[in-house]
């Protein structure tokens, strides 16, 4: 690991990167983030402040907290904050500091994804359109005009957060920051200027001395001490891991659904599928999971990119209007509680992987002092499986993970949904005045095709 020394000292001792400042001490090692000396398993939820109103923020954050979320994660929207060069807007829905302060008031942490290219199905990927008129500019590469304006805005945001005392190093809630966004998707197109841009962006960010770690998502070549993280629906299976044994395994975007385009079908991802892959990621030494989105909200005006609907990630645990979406919200709340109960052996125990059958396995974390937690995995999508674990027969539901906080008793299974199920109806009335014929058309929303098939005719009028 490279050593970075600035006004905020970054010390590397026995594989632990330490960010020291006046407030909370945020560190990391190869297992997890460490806050004030305590390892943490953290559940995070993305809520974008411009996609809701300031009047909604307190309620959205409170519902996330009640759902077992520890961190609120948000992008920073450059083209809304700097509509013209040097002219800034941090009012109303764009009052970033107010949003972060609300997170702090409710006792949660924050992750600030500055980018400043963010994608996020946002117009121009968050880049101000006036950049187009800058002479000689080439976006997101080792190009001096672009780097000048990118550094200028990034510094503006960091200084704003510092002036309000919002970094954890100052006693604030921000424990993580992100620079760039899924750059590896296009890095090769810039040849040698791609990797040099990555190195420049990481160095520029760290030199801003926030006192908290920086991450780069989907960036396997993220330079030390920046942490490379995973985005996707199945990071427990797809993530190749941190690029250093001294960095934790983190999942910055667990897609709870997917964005929608006009004319497209709604993508429904079940609570069971989300829970399975979160549990698998934790079982495979993951320690930070962010739900993208936890609340999608609304693309007001012309904020969205081409063809993207006004409603954004409406199938998230909180719907477009901030209402709790069951069973997703409740099932994930129960998952968070189960994993939090196991956090001590998870973070301090020795992991082992045991085969329980052709498609079944166990991940066991054993502490020296006797603490034990087990994740029993059934990868068979169509059949129950009875496995023998520590001389006890345990039945596993299809495509599921059972959590045993003492390696004996099952307290949660990812496929067993105990939360109430919501039903939304779209009702159309067709009336003929002469004969007064009334026809009711009922459209059931919020279920997958498989779930609708199971219900059969029970929902017909």
TrEMBL record:
Residues 32-338 form the Glycoside hydrolase 35 catalytic domain. PROSITE patterns: GLYCOSYL_HYDROL_F35 (PS01182). GO terms for cellular component: apoplast; plant-type cell wall; vacuole. It is an enzyme of class 3 (hydrolase). Keywords: Apoplast, Glycoprotein, Glycosidase, Hydrolase, Secreted, Signal. Its main location: secreted. Residues 1-23 form the signal peptide. It catalyses: Hydrolysis of terminal non-reducing beta-D-galactose residues in beta-D-galactosides. InterPro entries: GH (IPR017853), GHD (IPR041392), Gly_Hdrlase_35_cat (IPR031330), Glyco_hydro_35_CS (IPR019801), Glycoside_Hdrlase_35 (IPR001944). Its EC number is 3.2.1.23. The keyword Signal applies. It is found in: Secreted, Extracellular space, Apoplast. GO terms for molecular function: beta-galactosidase activity. GO terms for biological process: galactose catabolic process; plant-type cell wall modification. The keyword Hydrolase applies. Residues 361-417 form the Beta-galactosidase beta-sandwich domain. Pfam families: GHD, Glyco_hydro_35. Belongs to the glycosyl hydrolase 35 family. This is beta-galactosidase. It comes from Vitis vinifera (Grape).
């Amino acid at each position: 690991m490279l050593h970075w020394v600035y006004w905020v000292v970054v010390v590397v001792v026995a594989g632990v990167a330490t960010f020291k400042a006046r407030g909370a001490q945020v560190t990391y090692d190869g297992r997890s983030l460490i806050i004030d000396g305590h390892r943490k398993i953290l559940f995070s939820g993305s809520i974008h402040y411009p996609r809701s109103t300031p009047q909604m923020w307190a309620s959205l954050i409170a519902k996330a907290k009640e759902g077992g979320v520890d961190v609120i994660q948000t992008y920073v929207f450059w083209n809304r904050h700097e509509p013209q060069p040097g002219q800034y807007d941090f009012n109303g829905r764009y009052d970033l500091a107010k949003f972060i302060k609300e997170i702090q008031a409710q006792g949660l942490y924050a992750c600030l994804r500055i980018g400043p290219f963010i994608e996020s199905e946002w117009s121009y990927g968050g880049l101000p359109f006036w950049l187009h008129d800058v002479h000689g500019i080439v976006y997101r590469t080792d190009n001096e005009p672009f780097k000048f304006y990118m550094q200028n805005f990034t510094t503006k945001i960091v200084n704003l957060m510092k002036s309000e005392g919002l970094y954890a190093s100052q006693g604030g809630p921000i424990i993580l920051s992100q620079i760039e966004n899924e750059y590896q998707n296009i890095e090769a197109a810039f040849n040698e200027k791609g990797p040099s841009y990555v190195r420049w962006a990481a160095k520029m960010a760290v030199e801003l001395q926030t006192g908290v770690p920086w991450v780069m998502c989907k960036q396997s070549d993220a330079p030390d001490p920046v942490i490379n993280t995973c985005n996707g629906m199945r990071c427990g299976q797809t993530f190749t891991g941190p690029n250093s044994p001294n960095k934790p395994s983190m999942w910055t975007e667990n897609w709870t659904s997917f964005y929608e385009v006009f004319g497209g079908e709604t993508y429904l991802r079940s609570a069971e599928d989300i829970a399975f892959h979160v549990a698998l990621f934790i079982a495979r030494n993951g320690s930070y999971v962010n739900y993208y989105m936890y609340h999608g909200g609304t693309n007001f005006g012309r904020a969205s990119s081409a063809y993207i609907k006004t409603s954004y990630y409406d199938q998230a645990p909180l719907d477009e209007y901030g209402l709790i979406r069951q069973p997703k919200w409740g099932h994930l709340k129960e998952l968070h509680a189960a994993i939090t109960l196991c956090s001590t052996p998870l973070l301090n125990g020795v992991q082992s992987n045991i085969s329980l059958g052709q498609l079944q396995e166990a991940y066991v974390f054993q502490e020296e002092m006797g603490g034990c937690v087990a994740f029993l995995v059934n990868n068979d999508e169509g059949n129950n499986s009875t496995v023998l674990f520590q001389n006890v027969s345990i039945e596993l539901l299809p495509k599921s993970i059972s959590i045993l906080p003492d390696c004996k008793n099952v307290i949660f299974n990812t496929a067993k949904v105990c939360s109430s199920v919501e039903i939304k109806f779209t009702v159309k009335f067709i009336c003929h005045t002469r004969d007064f014929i009334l026809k009711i058309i009922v459209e059931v929303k919020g279920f997958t095709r498989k779930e609708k098939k199971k219900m059969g005719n029970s929902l017909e009028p």
